[in-house]
Amino acid sequence: MTAVATQGWTQTGAPEAFKARIARELFSHPVIIGNAYTRWFSQGRADAERMKDLILQFSVFSNYFLVIQAKRLVFAQTREGEDAARSILVNELGVGMDPRTGSAEGKAFSARNAHLNWLRDAGAALGLEPMALGRWSAAEPETRAFLQGLEESYASEDACVGAGASFAIENWAAFGIGQGPERESRNFWKQLIAGVEGHNRNFRAPRGLSPVPLAFFKYHFLMESGHSAGVWRELEEDLRAPGFDGEKFIAGGRAALDALEIFWRGLDSRRLRAERAADLSEDGGGAARGHADAPCGGRALRNVGPVDAVAPVRGVF
C-alpha cells in the first residue's frame, strides 16, 4: 500500500493509541477540515485583487519558510528527522523529490524550480513585480503572526516540539490525498488549484488575458504525499528515541496549526472587507463616503486584533 493511501492512518511504526490521539487532536483542527477561505476560493470567484493578495502573502510564507525549515533541520533529534528536514528544504530551493518517499536523494537541481520562482511567475501574470514577492515588508500582520508562531513551534530548539509541528504542517498539506474524491476535494492544494482555474476561466479568458500559471500549486499537490511520508517515518524513529515526549509533540503540532489558521483567517478577513466595500459602493454610498465604519469618511482601519503589532520573527527576520 502506498504512502499516499496510508497517510495518517495505517502506518505501522506508531503505537495505535498515539495515532488515535494524533487523529483526535491534530487532524480534526479547523484549519485542516474547515478552512473557510480555501472553500470560498475553490469556487473560482477570486478577482485579480484577491489573487494578488493570495500570491503575495503566500510568497512571504514560501520565502521565510526556508529559514524556518533550516532551523528545523539543525534542531532535529534523529538522523531520520534530519534527513526528512533536509529533503524538504532542498526541494523548496529547487531540487527534485521522489513523490512516493519524500526523498531528494540524487535528484537534480534547477533554480527555475525554486518554489518562490514559480510564485513569481504566477504573480507576473497578475502584474506583480517579481522581486517584490517574498519580502517581509509585503507581509500583512496576520502573515507575520503566522510566521512568528511557526518559528516558535516548527523551528523550536526542543526537537519534540519541532517534530510535532513539522508532522502537523506536512499532514495538513497532504490531507485527503489518495483517500477518495470527496476527501481529496477538501485538500487545500486541490481547492487552490480549482480556484486559480476558476479565476482564469471567469476573469482572464473573457478578456483575452493569458492564464495565471498553476505550476506552484499543482507541483505541491503532487509532492505533498512524499513530504507527509517523510514525517511519518520521522515519527516512527522519534518514538524509538530516548526522551521522546508525546505531550510536547502534540503541543507543537497544535501550536503550528493554530499559527497557520491565523494566516488563512487574514486572507479571509481581507476578502470579506473587500466584498463589504464593493456592496457599499454598489449601494451608492461607499465610493463617496468611504467605508461606513471609517472616521471622517476615510478608509476604515483594519480590525484584526493583536496581530497588528507583530514584530519580525524573533532571531530570524
- The count of β-strands is 0
CA-based shape: globular
CATH class: Mainly Alpha
The biggest beta sheet reads: none
The Cα radius of gyration reads 20 Å
Number of domains: 1
Terminal residue distance: 42 Å
Mean pLDDT figure: 85
Helical segment tally?
14
| CATH architectural arrangement | Up-down Bundle
How would you concisely characterize the structure shown here?
The protein has 14 helices and no strands. It is mainly α and 317 residues long.
Describe it for me?
The chain has 317 residues and is mainly α. The protein has a single domain (3-278), classed as Heme oxygenase-like (Heme Oxygenase, Chain A). The chain has 14 helices and no strands. It has helices at 3-6, 16-25, 30-33, 36-41, 48-74, 79-93, 115-125, 141-153, 159-173, 181-184, 188-204, 215-240, 246-282, 286-289. The termini are far apart.
Could you name the key traits of this structure?
317 residues; mainly alpha; Heme Oxygenase, Chain A; globular; disordered C terminus
SSE topology:
Layout: H1 3-6, H2 16-25, H3 30-33, H4 36-41, H5 48-74, H6 79-93, H7 115-125, H8 141-153, H9 159-173, H10 181-184, H11 188-204, H12 215-240, H13 246-282, H14 286-289
Helix pairs in contact: 5-6, 5-7, 5-8, 6-12, 8-13, 9-12, 9-13, 11-12
